Amino acid sequence: MSQSRIGNAAGLWSLPEWLNTPLRMLTIFLGGATGALGMALSMLSMPAEPVWIVPGLLLGFVAIYQSIFVHEFGHLLGARLGGMTVMRLRVGRWDFRMRRRGWIVSRQPKHPQKLAGYVMAFADPRGPWRRQHVWFNAGGPLANMLVAGLAGLLSLTLEDGPVQGLLLAVAATNACMGVANLLPVQGKLKQVSDGLWMLRWWRGMDAAHPQLAFARLMGLSCSGLCADQVPEADLQLLESQESPMPLVALYIRLRALQIQGRWQEAAALDSSFQTQRNALPEALQKVLYDMLRLIGAELAFAQAVASRSALGLFDELLPQRLQSEYTSIWARCLAMRAAATGDQQEFRRQLDLAVAFARQSPDLSQETEELRMQQHLLELLPA
Q1: How far is Cα 89 from Cα 74, in angstroms, rounded to an integer?
Q2: Each residue of 348-366: pLDDT tens digit?
Q3: Where is the Peptidase M50 domain (predicted)?
């Protein structure tokens, strides 16, 4: 699936409910068929002895899992072909964070939807949005259909056996996955299928639509526009939308104040952050755990600079996993801790690391923002 989940409530075009409902039921059926056919074809291709039951189950699981990998990597390739900036890809617990060169692979905490996947990619505002998004949304289903066709043709050249069974399972799971995602369906929880997004763009969806404010802001950021340069109108649109968009707007405003060296004003956003966080349902707080910890860490950093005290920058401010992911932020925290102890050499080294880590990000604004923060910090706390 794509990273966007915007439905009728947002004022975007969708099929009428009398047509959407049966197509949604068909999508659910195809989802079940993906798992059932993957397991059945793998199991039936094995010898009849009980000892082959476990290998058959394992092959079935591989067939199902690979169809999701194929789908998401198809989205990644489509995004790249369209000229979008790809930030990350996730399948189940496998997380691929993109860098300007290569990527970082890690295992993430368990998720209720163990076989879910997504690609986070944003359109380049300097190019045509329609072409970029059509490539992006078409990439996943087309990759599934291509692999299904190749696996099916190859299976015809083989005799009955486990290898042929695996290829048939691969063909079936990819075919079901591809067709299911091509159906122009909106789910009950506002999930939007690839097929529906493609129809919306082919119908001439307006790139200036209010519900695309987040995508516009992220596209500008990835192209190098800093947080204090983004359109105020889009920030206000985010603040008027459902959670977590107001939190995203708060984070952008926080970054804007930080890169301008306005540390007291940045730290003062903590009260607004606490109010918004406490208003979130517990289930949503769990989903937004990483984002909430990120904003909390940035606010703690701003408070540390404003007060010239690193007491709030303790090791547990960010879990080890997030220290490794938000490397620039954590390097800045370590720089402030070094400054508090009078270790000017370590202070400067950690600031340089923060810039070096940001330089690896496909989001081109990150490096510029870290350089601007570094300049303010060196003026405030000279090394």
Answers
A1: 11
A2: 999 999 999 999 999 999 9
A3: 61-156
- Residue 2: predicted pLDDT: 46
Asked if omega into 244 is within 30° of 0 (cis), the reply is yes
Q: Other CB atoms closer than 10 Å to residue 382's CB: what's the count?
A: 10
Q: What is the CA radius of gyration of the chain?
A: 24
Tokens 């529906």 appear where? 196
Q: Which two tokens stand for residue 44?
A: 């039936």
pTM, whole model, 2 decimals? 0.90
Q: In this predicted model, what pLDDT tens digit does every residue of 22-75 receive, in sequence order? A: 999 999 999 999 999 999 898 888 877 787 788 888 888 999 999 999 999 999
User: How many alpha carbons fall within 13 Å on the CB side of residue 148?
Assistant: 21
| Exposed / middle / buried, residue 261 (Cβ in 10 Å: 0-12, 13-18, 19+) | middle
Handedness of CA 103, 106, 109, 115 (dihedral sign): positive
Please state, in angstroms and rounded to a whole number, the distance separating the CA atoms of residues 214 and 245. 8
Of 61, 68, 258, nearest to 144 by C-alpha is 68
